[in-house]
Backbone:
């Protein structure tokens, strides 16, 4: 599976707010969070009105608070929390010392609270605002299909992977392919976020150079991981190398918004897999169809990249790598950073992309265990729950669209809510509606896949509960990513994967029960984290 699991590229407007009020107030229009920009790529405070200089001089105000309240009347009246007023005061350059000397209050928060109490609430109707989260459902569904479509390559290449079962009782070559796929998944998530970060800063050239260096490195790492697994059929290693190359090419095309181009590249393989269900295709034909799709994807990806600039950057950096200057980190780390530094010395930190890779590893292992957990625990090969993994993969398209719908709902909530409590209630309702719709789609996909998949195990109540809980983990984890809280999501998902792995290695508990408990615990923690963020306007930027 390849592609981005986050929704909106980080933009230049995600920096800190002013002074003490960072993390407390953010919004748009005249509803909750009045006064701070949203959806425009800039966190800016409104201009504070200054006293008019053309007024005739007169006696000083008996109380400077009266003059300040009059000057900020519009902002104070539409604020739903004193912190919003404190943000205005600090943006006006009022220090705590100035406030103590001029207004006799301890700090900006004390002054804001008194101003808030003095001026009655007044909420003008918000004007129409653009929705930056609007996205086409068709485009999201297309991405979900593209995420799942490469799975047909295994169907087309099945005769090439014939041989004795792996040592865990899995079909020949399974461990080889899984090792390469997991490494590719981790690298793909990290690389995708890094490239999206550059795109969010408006630097498509830096994003292209990042992909030009990162995609081949990821292909090498995936191939090396596959080669490290002994005992697979000879062709499984070539298949794994092709899989790693495809993941790199697909990452490039998906990040740069070339979904339809990638779909066209996959067409020969997909048509061949469909024919293979009814006709016993000769092995040379199968290999040709696989090679044509792979070559098409790689060629189209290379066409999208700044190859000449990237090669010059690589040649320049090779000299630096040869010297292995102290303090610069491992060679692969230097490679990904170096291709960017030569052209764009300032940009997003490379370490910020690592949690996305950790999240990808955690969720990848959880999906893997959902499909193979019983077999890995010593059960029969017939226990492979492939439809569950396919359903989770296909559901990523609807999940992406519903995440956009949730963020769109948060924008309208910021505009229309008149209190923090009202905003939280609106967000809880929106969250419940979007999550319920996603789980309904996931359940439908799981049931359909089980009915259509030959020999698939029955989707019992425990399997359904596990599938839905894993879906909740995936969706809430992605929602936390879109909030910018990827680190907690990565910690929860990776911890769940570690717990699941330890249970399998030690033989602790019945596999289905362990999966249910682990998925339930992870879903509960992630849901609690989401609910903690729901009422904070700053989380919905």
Residues:
């Amino acid at each position: 599976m390849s592609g981005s699991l986050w929704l909106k590229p980080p933009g230049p407007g995600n920096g800190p707010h002013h002074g003490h009020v960072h993390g407390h107030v953010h919004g748009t229009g005249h509803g909750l969070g009045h006064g701070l920009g949203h959806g425009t790529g800039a966190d800016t405070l409104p201009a504070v009105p200054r006293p008019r200089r053309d007024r005739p001089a007169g006696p000083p105000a008996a109380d400077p608070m009266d003059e300040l309240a009059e000057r900020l009347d519009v902002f104070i009246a539409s604020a739903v929390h004193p912190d919003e007023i404190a943000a205005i005061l600090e943006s006006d350059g009022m220090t705590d010392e100035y406030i103590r000397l001029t207004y006799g209050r301890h700090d900006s928060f004390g002054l804001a609270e008194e101003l808030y109490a003095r001026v009655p609430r007044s909420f003008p109707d918000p004007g129409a605002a653009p929705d930056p989260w609007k996205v086409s459902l068709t485009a999201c569904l297309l991405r979900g299909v593209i995420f799942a479509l490469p799975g047909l390559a295994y169907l087309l290449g099945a005769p090439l992977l014939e041989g004795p079962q792996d040592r865990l009782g899995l079909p020949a070559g399974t461990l080889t392919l899984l090792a390469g796929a997991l490494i590719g998944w981790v690298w793909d998530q990290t690389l995708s976020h890094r490239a999206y970060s550059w795109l969010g800063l408006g630097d498509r050239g830096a994003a292209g150079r990042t992909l030009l260096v990162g995609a081949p490195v990821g292909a090498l790492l995936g191939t090396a991981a596959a080669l490290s697994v002994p005992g697979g059929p000879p062709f499984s290693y070539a298949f794994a190398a092709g899989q790693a190359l495809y993941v790199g090419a697909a990452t490039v095309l998906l990040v740069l918004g070339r979904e339809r181009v990638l779909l066209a590249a996959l067409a020969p393989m997909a048509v061949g897999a469909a024919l293979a269900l009814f006709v016993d295709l000769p092995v040379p034909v199968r290999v040709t169809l696989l090679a044509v799709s792979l070559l098409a994807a790689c060629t189209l990806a290379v066409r999208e990249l700044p190859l000449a600039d990237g090669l010059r950057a690589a040649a320049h950096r090779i000299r630096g790598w040869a010297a292995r200057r102290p303090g610069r980190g491992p060679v692969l780390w230097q490679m990904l950073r170096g291709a960017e530094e030569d052209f764009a010395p300032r940009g997003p930190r490379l370490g910020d992309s690592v949690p996305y890779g950790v999240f990808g590893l955690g969720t990848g292992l959880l999906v893997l265990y959902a499909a193979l957990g019983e077999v890995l625990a010593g059960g029969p090969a017939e226990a492979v729950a492939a439809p569950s993994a396919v359903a989770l993969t296909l559901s990523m398209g609807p999940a992406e669209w519903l995440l956009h719908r949730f963020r769109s709902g948060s924008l309208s909530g910021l505009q229309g809510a008149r209190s923090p409590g009202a905003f939280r209630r609106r967000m809880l309702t929106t969250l419940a509606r979007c999550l319920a719709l996603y789980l309904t789609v996931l359940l439908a996909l799981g049931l359909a896949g089980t009915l259509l998949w030959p020999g698939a195990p029955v989707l019992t109540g425990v399997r359904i509960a596990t599938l839905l809980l894993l879906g909740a983990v995936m969706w809430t984890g992605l929602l936390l990513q879109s909030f910018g809280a990827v680190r907690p999501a990565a910690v929860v998902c990776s911890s769940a994967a570690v717990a699941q792995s330890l249970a399998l290695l030690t033989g602790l508990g019945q596999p289905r029960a362990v999966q249910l408990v682990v998925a339930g615990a992870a879903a509960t923690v992630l849901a609690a984290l989401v609910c903690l963020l729901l009422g904070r306007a700053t989380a919905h930027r």
User: Anything to note?
Assistant: Residues 69 and 118 are 8 Å apart (CA to CA). Confidence is low (pLDDT under 50) at residues 1-45, 51-60, 339-345. The first helix runs from residue 64 to 71. The two ends are 29 Å apart (CA to CA).
